Amino acid sequence: MILVTGATGNIGRALLQELHAHGAGPLRGLTRDASRAVFPEGVEAVEGDFAETASLKPALEGVRSLFLVSRLGSDADIIEAARQAGVEHVVLVSSITVQTHPHLGPAAENLAVEELLKASGMAWTILRPTQFASNALMWAASVRGGETVHAPYAETALPTIHPADIASVARVALTEPGHHGRTYALTGPEPVTARQQVEALAAALGREVPFAEISRGQAHAQMAAVFGPEAADAVLDVTGGDVNHELLRVRDTIAQVTGVPARPFRQWAAENADAFR
């Protein structure tokens, strides 16, 4: 049994579809509300809440492989619950900032989860993706309303990754040999700036989407109201304020692991254009 947590999220939804398409299984998807989950035929929907570790016990029953996104609950308790349930292999989504910006708080937290998993006695595979293409959804309300999209560091180009590519690597790691004890840094196929992302969205929508660069201070004020000041600083550092070669570097890990080239941002934009209409 393979359990996919975050099964209705950007990665989990794509992963369940890939696993189902490749005939893997049996499959189980974890969600907070099973009645609202739309999974491929034959996928068992189970309810659980990371904030209530005890609620995960029924979902983990009979599971041998687990897909887990870090920092969604008490990772120590979740990993221990998986170990006690007899899970043999965990594929963990961490962050590339563990190696590019280890001094930042969120990166240190992700590293701590990685170390918990390694010490658990279960087999492990760690995925460290860079900035998600789906982060562009934060602009959706502005684009739908015909407003100007505002972003800092407009010319900083990061190798943004399509969440489905993370799912593809996870699917291979969960179902094929040779991936235990491996850590994969994952990026998209090319650097893309915030300005270019908005241009790709405009092309997918077939209309102009106005864009304007704002200062770090302006962006921080907006982000701090949602994430808190420390997290806002961390996000701004890794999106342009404190970039380095490791963060900017394009990697071919996705093609090496899956045999298929990574998807460009413009593909994500085309596939998700309805969210901006």
Structure explained in plain terms:
Strand 4 (65-69), helix 3 and strand 5 form a beta-alpha-beta unit. Strands 3-2-1-4-5-6-8 form a seven-stranded parallel sheet, sandwiched between helices. It has a two-stranded parallel ribbon with strand order 7-9. The termini are far apart. With 277 residues, it is an alpha/beta fold. The mean pLDDT is 95. The chain contains 13 helices and nine strands. The longest helix is centred in the middle third of the chain and has 14 residues, at 105-118. It has helices at residues 10-21, 57-60, 75-85, 97-100, 105-118, 140-144, 163-175, 194-205, 216-227, 229-241, 245-248, 253-258, 265-271; strands at residues 2-4, 27-31, 44-47, 65-69, 89-93, 123-129, 149-151, 182-186, 211-213.
Give a brief outline of the structure.
With 277 residues, this protein is of the alpha/beta class.
